[in-house]
Amino acid sequence: MGLLSKKDAALITDPLADNNPITIQVLGICSALAITAELKASIVMALSVMAVLAIGNVVISLMRNIIPSKIRIIVQLIVVAALVIIVDLVLKAFAYELSKTLSVFVGLIITNCIIMGRFEAFALANGPWRSFLDGIGNAAGYGLILIIVGFFRELLGSGTLLGFKVLGDPIEKTGLYAMGYENNGFMLLSPMALIVVGIIIWIQRSKNTSLIEEN
Amino acid sequence: MSKRTDSNVYTIVFAVVMVLVVGTLLATVFSLTKPTITTNQKIEKQQNILYAMGVNDNDETSANFVSTKVAQEEFSKYIKKQLVIEGDKVTENDKAYLIDVKKEQSKAKEGKTRRLALFIGEKDGKTFYVAPIRGKGLWDAIWGYVSMDKNMIVQGAYFDHKGETPGLGANIKQRFFMDDFIGEHLLDDKGNFAGITVAKGNNDPKNEDKIDNEVDAIAGATITGNGVSAMIKSDLKLYIPYFKTLKK
Questions:
Q1: How far is B144 from chain A (nearest CA, A)?
Q2: Total domain count for chain A?
Q3: Does residue A26 belong to any structural domain of this protein?
Q4: Is residue A86 in some structural domain?
């Protein structure tokens, strides 16, 4: 990549695979379970977290030398909460339809541990540009897992992708359903998301054995 | 690095300044956006009411309101009367659509008379009676508008929610769920109010049986579905006296 130095590029590519916030650091699991019953919600959540994390990282990074270390967690919480509320209000005023789709996610974004985790672990010690890249990278890594989980849960649970009936109509018995295929309702429930994430972790660690922790 | 940021005085001053800055910022943004948000919410209510009586831009599968630009115009074109029912008293009020159902429900809890809004619309020679309803889902409030004919047979329904789970409870605002209510009877075969139950395993997923007072539930959304059943039962029941006067 000519645009970014090798070190900067790693900030984006590392969280996608070998330092993925969900599968390696096991952060942000709560929202990964809650909203991945359909693909569209996963994509919306991934993009929202990306916006908040990138901007939040830059803000915290700019403030890093003046934040008193005793109350830094509170300061981080205030920054992310204020940011999310302002974005929500502005959307409500100027993009009302979009804000209705996103409002469900607002609470989930504020409490997402990836956001606090990156503020604490990266933005407090690095400059704004690198923090911005780190925010994009980590949100992308998080979003990637969300989208994979959402893809399988919607496909196997509802037989649709982004709302399109890709496997035929379960009530009219067309497509795959004509051959006796049934949707797996269990896929729609949160425990199945945990199992799907578990399978992803399994595949990832069996491909790259250096990721396996030693006892 | 200097240790000045570790001192107590610095920490307290920082906290105070931070609160002031963030507080002012939030208050400013809130008051700047409030008028626009209120207008958006008013238009949304009109769109919801119109949607329930079948005035919408639906395509084959998705639910679409009439556009925000024409909502006000369409609302005054199709809605002939806005009524406020207060006990036995029925008055016309063209601001009835702004009645806050939540406030009225808590008024009823305190033993005061609840004001009920009812919108009478006309489209293609048919008369629609649209009533707002409100209740609790799994996480937060759910609400909606149900349009009926004078025999309390549902002509259309719109549901919405504040924070139900995407992909599960949030699907109450999808066409496949809302459309199931069309044609359902709110009264049983003896003419008593039965409501409509969102039922699991009613063996009628295509919803061909319209007089069973049941629609098919959404998998994985039991509590939201129960909330829909409950708000239909408790809120629409209150309109029975008015519908009885229509028969006289």
A1: 15
A2: 1
A3: yes
A4: yes
